[in-house]
Amino acid sequence: MRTRTKIIIAIVIILAIVAGFALAGWLYVKHLYNKMEFKPLDETDLGINIIEKDIKEAQIENCTKFVIFGSDSRDENNQYYGRSDTIIIVNINNDTKEMKFISIPRDTYVDVPGYGMTKINHAFAYGQEQLSIKTINSNFGLDLNQYITIDFNGLIAAIDRIGGVEVNLDADELSFINLRMDAANKIEGGPGKHILNGKQALVHSRNRYVGNDFARAQRQRTIIISALNKVMKQNETEILSIVDDILPYVTTNMDINKYKNMFLEVAKNRTDYLKDIKSVQIPSLDYGEGMMIDGIYYFGYNKDLALKDFKKYYYNIEEKQPEETQTENSTTQE
Question: Could you give the CA distance from residue 261 to residue 267 in angstroms, rounded to a whole number?
Answer without folding.
Answer: 10
